[in-house]
Amino acid sequence: MNSLQMAVADGLTITKRNALKIRRAPDLLGGVVMLPIVLVLLFAYVIGSMIELPGMSYREYMIPGIFVQAIVTSTQITGYTLTLDLQKGIFDRFRTLPMSPSAVLAGQTLSDVLMNVTSIAVMAVVGLLVGWRVHSSPYEAALGFLMLLLFSYAFSWVTVAVALTLRTPESFNNIATMVSLPLVFLSNAFVDSSRLPGPLQVVAEWNPVSTIIQGARELFGNTNAAMPVPDAWPLQHAVLASLLWSVLILAVFVPLSIRLYKRAVSR
User: How sure is the predictor about 143, in pLDDT bands with cuts at 50, 70 and 90?
Assistant: First the structure.
């Protein structure tokens, strides 16, 4: 078996390990299954009842935003479990095995994609029950879900890098919450970014989360001609910009995470 085949096999083994760990942990599994349901119901029946949009239902507008919010939130589980493994010395045991260093992190992030598949599927079903509809072709809808999963995989590597830098679950949780909340709420997830004050509007329009959400809305057909036309390039070309953001994040954070992992296990 060559080195590439060994790395793939090792990565799949770690993926299986993490998937089993999440399945056997009620608190983590609840975050994957229950959080999406709570988010959809909260925004559909509480917050959504107070917001009106020209020419379309707010429930159709907000579901793509909740998809991305759940992705940003659930990828924190990857970072949290990573810091737990570091704290317990699990990676020191991995280091004694003939295992590719990249396989450990690849397994962590792949298990996160599996978790997000479950989370998005649950949200989609609940969204359909509360009135969300897809108005595009099956091909475009499938591309929309694939784009969300690509972003979830890319963002997992961001949380891996942060976790390997902080190294403790408590520090990671604090920093991840401080970063994820502004990242989601300073976007077009729940309100049109054109309604925000000047400086905040610029931040929201160039926020990668806004781009992913806008791309998902376009691919699911959850847009309307009566809505204001965005001025920022990423929102005008949201699908292309979303793919570029995901590729850029992977290009930066995959090698950075591997370097941080090697440094962490060499201490």
Answer: very high
